[in-house]
Amino acid sequence: MAQLVYELSFKGAASDALAGAFENCTVTSRSGTTVVRSEVPDQAALHGLLARVHALGLEILELRLVAEPGVDDSWALDT
Hints:
This protein is an alpha+beta fold and 79 residues long.
């Protein structure tokens, strides 16, 4: 199944423990903002990711689609 890649940013720098809450995601922090990059197979998985952020009490700043299947797979090399 094709995977979509989303980036979700929230306020604050993620600790190692917080970053661990986002398994199979790339987590980066800089300038007081954390970005979680994740492949999601469907809308249910996206809602699950958003529910995890909500459960952790994080303030979402932005959610955006950064790659569609077959468009640009080079993002995976940036990790």
